Amino acid sequence: MTTLSSGFARARRWLRDHPLAFDATLAFCTLVAMICGSFTDPGDGHGPPAFGARTPELFSVFLMTLAAAALVLRRRRPMRILAVTAALAAVEYVLMDPSAPVVMSTVIALYTVASRTDRPTTWRVGLLTMGGLTAAAMVFGSTPWYSQENFGVFAWTGLASAAGDAVRSRRAFVDAIRERAERAERTREEEARRRVAEERLRIARDLHDVVAHHIALVNVQAGVAAHVMDKRPDQAKEALAHVRDASRSALNELRVTVGLLRQQGDPEAPTEPAPGLAVLGELVTTFRNAGLPVEVACADRDRLPAAVDLAAYRVIQEALTNVRKHAGAGARAEVSVVRVGATAEVTVLDNGQGSAGRRPGAAPGGGSGPDGGGPGDGDEQTGGGHGLVGMRERVTALGGALTAGPRYGGGFRVHAILPVEARTGEPDRPGTAGGTGLRR
Fold first, then answer.
1. Which of 311, 350, 303, 298 is nearest to 328 (CA)?
2. What does DSSP say about strands 294-298 and 333-340: parallel, antiparallel, or unpaired?
3. Dist CA 383 CA 96 (whole Å)
4. Res. 52 pLDDT band, cuts 50 70 90
């Protein structure tokens, strides 16, 4: 039984892949059915039909052959094939008595038209065919007009129209379901690609913050050690200890960040939490050890959502790194984090007097470059000037705003407003960052 069913399945697939062969087979079967029907005498209606009671005329066989041959092209020219078969059936009714069942080919042609056109066309063509052939059978046939053979013509043609319309509706329904499934699959793939791109951008920002901060501190402390190595070896040893601590912290944070890229089955990544305001004191200590006095005023540091907490920490880290690199000797920094309603405001101020070549946008109102930075953008030495760009992207991704620019009387100010309810994944809106759009 399994072998038989698999054989039928293979034959069905082959016929579906070769529609012309299927139509030729259907035309041959229709011709056989019409010839067999032409040997049947319906009688006077009081008894069963008698097979072999009559023999079809040669002209009737010719008409049946033409009608069956026309069905081979029913998919390519459905309306023309319907017209040809209907005309041949009408000629059979008019000229031959009793008539041969040439109308069988018309039924198949009408089904093809109904399954391949719209419903209004099916109604018009179906009613015209049904009415025309039924009228021809009633008027020119030898049997009374009310005989069952005449109404059978009406019933079979109407059934062909209804069946074809039902098949067309089902095909449209299946195609719609398939299209929705394909569209949903494409949407899922696009969403997955978008999430991957966002995650890559987030990891790139984290890597930039970690590397820029710690490498800047290592550079400063290494310079101090080299400067005092001969005259003050104890101070050089302390500077090298700070270099060791900063490099260890950089390695730990890089390990945590890169651990997010591991695949299933890779060695387990560290489970340390992401940095936040809870460890702000340790961050400030590293800058103080590097010679930058920092004053901190931070309230409710443990009550912010995780995404907002991380963003606030990274903004402070990047802003203090820029102060250390660009503010010049004797600069001081102030950091404040306060809750204002449904937002958290992060402010980093400094009183540095760095040169225009190292502190972009020395004049109030922004610099000369496309991002507000002048030709001497300081970050060009350490990564292409993406410090403020990265901060602005991080803040606006949460639905917040960032302003950055020179202070009146000297120094620089970075101010970020972060919503407590973070809207992560929201697309950046031009102008949301506000301020000067400077790059450091």
1. 350
2. parallel
3. 95
4. low
What are 391-412's pLDDT values in tens digits?
Answer: 888 888 888 999 998 988 888 9
Where are any strands of DSSP class E within 63-169? none
Task: Print burial letters for 172-193: b (CB count within 10 Å at least 16), e (below 16).
Answer: eeeeeeeeeeeeeeeeeeeeee
Residue 384 clears pLDDT 50, i.e. is over it: no
* Rounded Cα–Cα distance for residues 291 and 232 (Å): 16
Cα–Cα distance, 72 to 22 (Å, whole number): 9
152, 154, 113, 111: which is closest to 132 by C-alpha? 154
Listed range (125-129, 132-136, 300-304) with the worst mean pLDDT: 300-304
More confident: 210 or 326: 326
Question: What are the distances in angstroms from CA 133 to CA 44, 66, 237, 353?
Answer: 21, 18, 110, 101
Can you give the three-state secondary structure of 311-333, one letter per residue?
A: HHHHHHHHHHHHHHHHCCCCCCE
Contacts of 209 (CB under 8 A, 6+ apart): 314, 317, 318, 390
- The residue-averaged pLDDT of 360-383 equals 36
Residue 300 CA to residue 337 CA, distance in Å, equals 8
Tokens of 15: 């016929």
Average pLDDT over residues 59-65: 88
Q: Which helix (H) or strand (E) holds 402?
A: strand 401-406
Given a cut of 70, whether residue 96 has pLDDT beyond it is yes
Please give the Cα distance from 337 to 314 (Å, whole number): 13
Tell whether pTM > 0.70: no
234 phi and psi angles, rounded to 5 deg: -65, -40
Q: Mean pLDDT throughout 354-377?
A: 38
